[in-house]
């Protein structure tokens, strides 16, 4: 296995990467549909109408991962699309710290289906981790708990291999591909009005835009969601997350992609992110809005308190990270919306619809998959006629529900398991510890279930439903 993994890195890997394609999706559909137009069903406006034919007009609130990918997919299919972003520099402002994001095979496959050239740029800018050993390890001993094979399922399905990419680079590639004729910055969506044949978006500065549908891709604190379903409190996950990035090449870099070190009520995720850098996330179970020791190196001091007894791999990463690139945030998610994610001509996508805890690294991937399912449903509705737009939105929500709910539930379950993980039995004040018997049981279960579940997440053939 390892020799296969190693041989796929370097030139052999690149050759492979550029030759594999998503097979589940019909790429020709996008080309033919660029020409598809539907009859105008309401009043004309000069720049929107070509004779009596009108393009489907898609309004998107939020230019994050989901909003930009949807904007790109809609643009490539010839739809009339506008993306309204509150503040594009938010990723950049935090970007030094927010660091890379993992994109799994399914999400990369979807990106290829949406735009081969953009997918290529993303894959060239990223760092492949799925061709090495990835998995869970014990935080104190460093001993592997279970390993996931992210490579074989991807190869079997003809999908790209899981990789990480810097969020700012991902944003740059997507923004440039979408273009500023479609994306408008400094445009906060504050409200919308819909009736039987249109929806109007209202921006903070009073500007109004008319469209056929509105997609709320405005993240976990979505205004569109609040307008649709009323104000609901986000749920605190129980965890604060510290993240950091460091110019440190550990000795295991050629064999390990990412490793999640686990301990009681805390875990530490370390990932190679390419260009001689390692990214890490440290999760710790504590009430929200806790504070770190004041003075210089406060976050590092706190991290040393929390992880100082852990294995060398964890301690090295913390100690080699400068204080000013360590970011701390409390992690929230929301319950899944029981029924539809939208009403009438309005729907939600990505974190606006289903914010999840980041422990499986899937929130962004699910947003990307949402985009493709949504454009597939819109394509079908355009083929059938404009009045089908509303049912296309409901169909998209229905088809995404099972997969997204499963990943959402698994993310919550993972953090609950962490809260009860008790690897050792302490023997009073003695420095000796013995392994808790349940650890062996848990490990056996995880060794069977985790690889199956990871295969389903990253490369299940039904992750997009084209029926
Ligand atoms: C610590 C951490 C690590 C993570 N790691 C991963 C990972 O490895 N892989 C992965 O797939 N996911 C990961 N995620 C999850 C991922 O970041 C999110 O799921 C993803 O960003 C969701 O994309 P989105 O487009 O739905 O929302 P966002 O990326 O949050 O984008 C929403 C956009 O809408 C804009 N906006 C908000 N309100 C308005 C408004 N009223 N009007 C206009 N614009 C508005 C915002 O400025 C923002 O640009 C991680 C999350 C965290 C917290």
UniProtKB/TrEMBL annotation:
Gene3D superfamilies: FAD/NAD(P)-binding domain (3.50.50.60). GO terms for molecular function: FAD binding. Residues 57-407 form the FAD-binding domain. InterPro entries: FAD-bd, FAD/NAD-bd_sf. It comes from the Eukaryota. This is FAD-binding domain-containing protein.
């Amino acid at each position: 296995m390892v020799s296969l993994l190693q041989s796929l890195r370097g030139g052999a890997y690149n050759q492979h990467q550029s030759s594999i394609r998503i097979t589940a999706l019909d790429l020709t559909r996008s080309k033919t549909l660029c020409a598809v137009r539907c009859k105008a069903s309401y009043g004309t406006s000069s720049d929107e109408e070509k004779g009596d034919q009108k393009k489907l007009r898609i309004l998107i609130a939020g230019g994050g991962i989901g909003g930009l990918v949807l904007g790109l997919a809609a643009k490539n299919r010839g739809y009339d699309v506008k993306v309204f972003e509150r503040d594009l520099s938010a990723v950049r402002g935090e970007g030094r710290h927010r660091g890379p994001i993992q994109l799994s095979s399914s999400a990369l496959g979807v990106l290829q289906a949406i735009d081969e050239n953009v997918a290529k740029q993303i894959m060239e800018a990223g760092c492949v981790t799925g061709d090495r050993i990835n998995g869970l390890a014990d935080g104190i001993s460093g001993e592997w708990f279970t390993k996931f094979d992210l490579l074989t399922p991807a190869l079997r399905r003809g999908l790209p291999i899981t990789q990480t990419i810097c969020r700012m680079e991902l944003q740059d590639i997507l923004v440039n591909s979408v273009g500023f004729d479609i994306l408008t910055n400094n445009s906060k969506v504050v409200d919308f009005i819909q009736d039987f044949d249109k929806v109007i978006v209202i921006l903070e500065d009073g500007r109004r835009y008319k469209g056929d549908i509105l997609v709320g891709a405005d993240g976990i604190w979505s205004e569109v969601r609040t307008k649709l379903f009323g104000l609901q409190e986000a749920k605190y996950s129980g965890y604060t997350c510290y993240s950091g990035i460091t110019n440190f090449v550990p000795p295991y870099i050629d064999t390990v992609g990412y490793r999640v070190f686990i301990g009681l009520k805390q875990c530490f995720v370390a990932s190679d992110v390419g260009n001689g850098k390692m990214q890490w996330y440290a999760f710790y179970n504590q009430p929200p809005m806790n504070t770190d020791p004041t003075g210089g190196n406060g976050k590092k001091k706190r991290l040393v308190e929390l992880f100082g007894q852990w294995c060398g791999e964890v301690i090295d990463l913390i100690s080699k990270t400068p204080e000013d690139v360590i970011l701390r945030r409390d992690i929230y998610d929301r319950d899944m919306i029981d029924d539809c994610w939208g009403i009438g001509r309005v729907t939600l996508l990505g974190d606006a619809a289903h914010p999840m805890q980041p422990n499986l690294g899937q929130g962004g991937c699910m947003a990307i998959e949402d985009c493709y399912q949504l454009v597939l449903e819109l394509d079908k509705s355009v083929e059938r006629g404009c009045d089908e737009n509303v049912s296309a939105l409901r169909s998209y929500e229905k088809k995404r529900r099972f997969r997204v709910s499963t990943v959402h539930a698994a993310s919550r379950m993972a953090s609950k398991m962490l809260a009860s993980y008790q690897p050792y039995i302490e023997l009073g004040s003695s420095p000796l510890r013995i392994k808790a018997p349940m650890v062996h049981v848990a490990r056996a279960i995880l060794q069977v279930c985790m690889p199956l579940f990871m295969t389903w997440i990253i490369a299940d053939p039904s992750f997009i439903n084209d029926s």
